[in-house]
């Protein structure tokens, strides 16, 4: 099998001890469960640009690169694919978040950092709980 490694970004958008969460639908991955704004890093795109693009595409906000803080990195194995997931903390942005992709997002809501929805994707929940510590690295799905 040819090796495959994909990169993704996960935006921990935080305001007043609450995090912006979205409920996935029609994506083929973890539909019905809650996550954060996230997406693949496109070929030829750097991580910071991917954060800016996903923020605009999914919730209609503008983020400057100096407003992006790396919280941690997760190396994940999922369905015969390997992922490097960058979790970034966002506490400043321009615009009011709204559901800009209603075909992929059933709901958008703010949740207290210590009261996440029960059906939050497990590795996302772990990252949210670690986000206020020193920058971290973790792995998930490896045997």
From TrEMBL:
Which controlled-vocabulary keywords does the entry list?
A: Hydrolase
What single Pfam family name could you report for this chain, choosing any that match?
A: NUDIX
Q: Which GO terms describe its molecular function?
A: hydrolase activity
Q: Which residues form the Nudix hydrolase domain?
A: 4-133
Domain of life assignment: Bacteria
Quote the InterPro entries the UniProt record gives.
Answer: NUDIX_hydrolase-like_dom_sf (IPR015797), NUDIX_hydrolase_CS (IPR020084), NUDIX_hydrolase_dom (IPR000086)
Entry keyword annotation includes Hydrolase: yes
Matches recorded under PANTHER family: ADP-RIBOSE PYROPHOSPHATASE, DIHYDRONEOPTERIN TRIPHOSPHATE DIPHOSPHATASE
Regarding protein family, the annotation reads: Belongs to the Nudix hydrolase family.
This chain's protein is named NUDIX domain-containing protein
Q: Which organism is it from?
A: Alkalicoccobacillus porphyridii
Where is the organism placed in the taxonomic lineage, from the top?
Bacteria, Bacillati, Bacillota, Bacilli, Bacillales
